[in-house]
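Morning!

This is the sequence you dropped in the shared folder:
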Amino acid sequence: MITPKAKPKIILDTDPGGDDSFALLWLLSLVKQGFTELVAVTTVDGNVHARYTFAGASKLLKLAGFPSIEVGKGVIGGSESDLEDAGGIHGADGMGNLSHTLPEIDVSYEDAAYSDDILIEKLQANPGEVVVIAIAPLTNLASAEKKCPGILKNAKEIIIMGGAFKVPGNIRPEAEFNIAYDVEAAATVFASRDDIVVIPLDVTKQLIFTNEMAKQVSQINPESGISKFIVSLCEFMTKTALAFRETQGKQGFLVHDAATLAYLFYPETLLFRRADVMIETKGEWTRGKTLFDRRNKTKFGANAWVAMEVDSVNLLAVMIEDLKVLISLDLDPRLLEEVGDLGSSLL
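The structure's back. Tokens below.
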């Protein structure tokens, strides 16, 4: 008799962010479908200031019907680097300047717990049970590790969107934003355990979500608030992606962060290699670079599994279908009944 596996419990560490927003909505669809449990969302300073990432995540949770999920406010640290945030790409609010169209929230940034404290609390209470998905600078995770040494080993897994190995960086010639924004934090996290899962630009640069895909999702219920947000955010992100030459002229934008969910729920879409990932923390031109030894020589020790290949067609296809489910569950119950009756009449 096969024993059913327990639903993974997840903490999402994020800095919404256009692609973060799509990743969070995809995750909430998986929660609504009963495939996983979202324990908390820990926001961080990154794409925009921590105050805005906290508000953005809180608004998305309320939009999708999860206002009770705890949201932490980010530890300020990475912003002390010499890098600017990514507001020029994601909008001043991190969400395509669309946050004013989302529901007002009842939670206060000032009263919220800090994200590192939430990480420590949840990982201590559930050792070996919680998967931490980090799709932002690693400031929160590093702060938790410094406050409570060894706490990151309590996570069942740590999945990181970050790094660039065989491809150029996106914030510096050799560095990816999430790593470069707080390189000391990244180094701390990668030193914390030997089985970190890394989803780098090498695969995420192949994940172009188009306006046509957004419209395909929204057709389930064009009047849904989630539908309208997805279409409008995709249109905004497409314009900035084209302006920053990110998609080789294709009409869409890169949903980097979403690939972390594929690892957990659609692992057949990714191919990994084992490696000892190193973070360059001192280089004048290469600060924030991620690298591993590619020479044909005996290697001892490794700290990560790094995604190097992706089935982008099928990854985007399953993402689209799950987003459709999220929107269909946002339908008025009477409309759902009508849709069901229509389906029965066609059989």
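Headline: The chain is about 40% helix and 15% strand.

More detail when I'm at my desk.
O.
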